[in-house]
Amino acid sequence: MSITESYPPAFRRVINDGARSATAEIEPVCVHDKDIDIPVIDFECLDKEILTEACRDWGIFRLKNHGVPLPLMSQLQEISESLLSLPFENKQKLFAAVNSPMSYFWGTPALNRSGDALKRGAQASNASMVEGFNVPLSKLPASTFCDDDAQRSELELFRVLIEEYGRHITRIAVSLFEAIAQTLNLELSSHQKSDYLLESTGLIRVYRYPPSDKTAGEALGMEVHTDSSVISILKEDETGGLEIMKDEEWFRVKPVADTLIVNLGDMMQAISDNEYKSVEHRVKKKDMTTKRHSVCYFVFPQRDCVIKSSNYKPFTYSEFEAQVQADVQSLGTKIGLLRFTPESPLFL
């Protein structure tokens, strides 16, 4: 099987162009963005001062000593890459056939609650060069089944590993949220904590970004966005490609082995009354000749929890999610929290 057969047909021309250009002599490309070291938080001894600064000034930080077993992360990456390397048509059939809420997506990170890609409006930019699996952790079945024994075995191992990884990463998210709430002096009851960060909403997305032609520009990777989550926790490989907006400039975040990257989402920005920020980010690979693999965990508030802020109209996460999906489908892009400022009329 040709390597390109594992990718969606829309990706194959770009990949092939990239392979041809890689064999030719290419003039150096002027890179406008720069490397940056984001704040580092030690999960074993959380420093509230460093955590406050990271949330307030950056909206993103690196987590070390997180306690997730390194062999587990290595195994999860290996089995994920194996499944993603199946022929494109096989992946579609496999995830459509199994009795599972897990789904396969490509061309956009904008999915509905069922894990299906949203149809984007006519004003949308080119498709993102990304594909992956969407896994809602609370809905994972006890086992997965499909007709092909070999693929069933791989998919079952993937389910087992992602379930275990999910337990570790959920523990981290809950602990971080409690620590962040303390830095904001939010005195929350157990019920309020689960309203703002509900473990059962947690989902994992496994991403693969193909090698591609350097002329593809902004179509590479993932477009500029903020996460809708409370907290997102990323495990990336050594390829790199994550970029963040800081002081109106784009900076590359260098990958560091055995660490996780935590970024705050829109819900945390609203909960903090804009004291903390939901960081703008994108994926734009510097090395066009290699693929990139990452695993990201997202967690959200209780759907009917009313989030009140002096900067926004009161809203529930359910209303926020519906508005984001309406904007993506009609305008081709997410508007996000700006839809809920007092001066902004809602689109819905």
Provide an overview of this structure:
The protein has helices at residues 9-22, 48-58, 70-84, 88-97, 149-183, 190-196, 266-271, 317-331, and strands at residues 34-36, 40-42, 60-64, 103-106, 131-136, 198-209, 222-225, 231-236, 242-246, 249-253, 260-264, 281-283, 292-300, 306-309, 312-316. The chain is α+β, with helices and mostly antiparallel strands. A hairpin with a 2-residue loop joins strand 14 and strand 15 (312-316). The longest helix has 35 residues, at 149-183. The chain has one domain (3-16, 28-304): Sandwich (Jelly Rolls), CATH 2.60.120.330. 32% of the residues lie in helices and 23% in strands. The strands form 3 sheets. Strands 2-3-11-8-13-6-5-4 form an 8-stranded mixed beta sheet. The protein is built from 8 helices and 15 strands. The model is unreliable at 19-32 and 215-219 (pLDDT under 50). 39% of the residues are buried.
Task: Give me some keywords for this one.
single chain; 348 residues; alpha+beta; Jelly Rolls; eight-stranded mixed beta sheet; five-stranded mixed beta sheet; 8 helices; iron; Oxoglu/Fe-dep_dioxygenase_dom; Fe2OG dioxygenase domain-containing protein; oxidoreductase; oxidoreductase activity
- The rounded distance between the terminal residues' Cα atoms is 46 Å
Global morphology: globular
Secondary structure tally: strands: 15
Tell me about the largest β-sheet.
Answer: 8 strands, mixed
Cα-atom radius of gyration: 20 Å
CATH architecture: Sandwich
Q: Trace the largest sheet across and list its strands.
A: 2-3-11-8-13-6-5-4
The computed structural class is alpha+beta
Number of helices: 8
For CATH, the homologous superfamily is named as B-lactam Antibiotic, Isopenicillin N Synthase, Chain
Supply the number of structural domains.
Answer: 1
List SSEs in N-to-C order.
HEEHEHHEEHHEEEEEEHEEEEH
- The residue-averaged pLDDT reads 86
Low-confidence stretches: 19-32, 215-219
In what range is the share of β-strand residues?
Answer: 15-25%
Q: What is the CATH first-level class name?
A: Mainly Beta
CATH topology, what is it called?
A: Jelly Rolls
Helix content: 25-40%
